[in-house]
């Protein structure tokens, strides 16, 4: 199979997997289709890959952002990927072998420290926060804030503005952009500590 055909098959496989997982667990998967390349580009456009040495991805799904992180990261950058679904996590681990994989983002701080990371330069999140209980949302954001370096960045996408007040309460600067070329259109929150 040539490169383009393999890429096409991989893309179809990811969409089918994602849709099946959405049908099985709509309370854990925030959309019926994986994120678009436009959303991935917007999420990662401000990362300083030359300086980023510790990054966490939360709610990686089928690995749309993981693929770009893996391709763009500095060789010395440690990346921790959190994905609750075992199948999606194992498929990413087989493809992107030198990253660290974990299942439960509620133990973010503990898992990050277990791989020798004291603080993070960047956290990229695809977690569907709207589907989580308030206490879990707050716990995750609290851990992110504690783990980020003083100049660290948290970037997340959501399908609503529900997270705006919680993020403004925890970060000194929050910028919001709309990515219309995604199904559904998504808001990207860019937050500085």
Explain this structure:
The protein is of the alpha/beta class. Helices cover 40% and strands 23% of the residues. It contains seven helices and seven strands; from the N terminus they run ααβαβαβαβαβαββ. It has a seven-stranded mixed beta sheet, with helices on both faces. Helix 2 (37-44) crosses helix 3 (64-72). The termini are far apart. Mean pLDDT is 87; it is low at 1-9, 18-23 and 25-32.
Task: Work out the helicity level.
Answer: 25-40%
Largest sheet: 7 strands, mixed
| Gyration radius, rounded | 16 Å
How would the global form be characterised?
Answer: globular
Overall SS class:
alpha/beta
Query: Looking across the biggest beta sheet, what order are the strands in?
Result: 3-2-1-4-5-7-6
Average the pLDDT over all residues and give the rounded result.
Answer: 87
N→C terminal distance: 46 Å
**Multimeric organization:** single chain
Specify the number of helices. Answer: 7
Question: Could you give the count of β-strands?
Answer: 7
- Residue ranges: pLDDT <50 for 5 or more in a row? 1-9, 18-23, 25-32
Order of helices and strands: HHEHEHEHEHEHEE
Fraction of residues in β-strands: 15-25%
Brief sketch in words of this structure:
The chain has 193 residues and is an alpha/beta fold. Helix content is 40%, strand content 23%.
